[in-house]
Amino acid sequence: MLFLNFLSDTIDTRTLLRHTMPAVHGADLDLNSKAYLDFVDLLKSKEILVDPTVAIFENMYISQKGEPSPTFKKIIKRLPLMDQRSHYSGGLQKEGAMVARYQASFEKMLNVIYDLFKRDIPIVPGTDGLPGFLYHRELELYDMSGIPAADVLKLATIKSAEITGVSDSFGSIEVGKRADLILIDGNPLEDMSDIRKVEWTMKGGYLYYARELYEAMGIKHFK
Questions:
Q1: How wide is the angle at C-alpha 154 spanned by C-alphas 148 and 112, nearest 5°?
Q2: Confidence label for 211 from pLDDT (cuts 50, 70 and 90)
Q3: In the chain, domain spans
């Protein structure tokens, strides 16, 4: 929707045009143009936050039919066979010159995310897709955009808690806060993909072991 702001105001967003128009024309967005800079100023003056859900667009713009989507490539073999098949569909139909065009538009989306971050526009990680796994990909893409890993983790924790007004209870590990947290076998500060290596989750005072939960849904553990 952010990219649509710079395209025709006659686009019917109830149709697939809301996706294909940014895919075709998104690469042309000039981040130094007056239109873009004025828009950023408007976001800042109105205290508007941005929820990019960029992983959804990676799947639509970059994936190729018959090949595993890059959005789910790291976990596709862990999923039940029926679920694996859905990630070979190729996203939006594209061929010829449009393949490179869609790629360029997606890369521009990552550029915008990094630019908004640098300009102090609040960003909240969201997905609109596969619970858990797609959130991990969203954070990986923020890291790929150029946002420092430590700041990516803050966006997913304390910053989101501050934006939603619950930072007194959530968002960081401190005395007096609720113990909603995860234990990771790795260091996402060095490799953001380690965020996928969840050993257990604590929620509402209960401890859940990731392996048991995954196996209950027919999903393989990361090990």
A1: 55
A2: very high
A3: 3-147, 179-223
Give per-residue pLDDT as tens, 124-134: 999 888 887 99
Q: Are 117 and 123 in contact (CB under 8 A)?
A: yes
Give yes or no for residue 204 having a pLDDT over 90. no
Residue 222: partners with Cβ closer than 8 Å, 6 or more residues away: 78, 185, 196, 197, 198, 210
Cα–Cα distance for residue pair 115/145, rounded to 1 Å: 9
Say whether pTM exceeds 0.85: yes
CA angle 104, 94, 110 (to 5 degrees): 25
Q: Which of 124, 135, 143 is nearest to 189 (CA)?
A: 143
- Phi first, then psi, for residue 3 (nearest 5°) are -70, -35
Q: In the structure encoding, which two tokens stand for residue 18, read together?
A: 């809301």
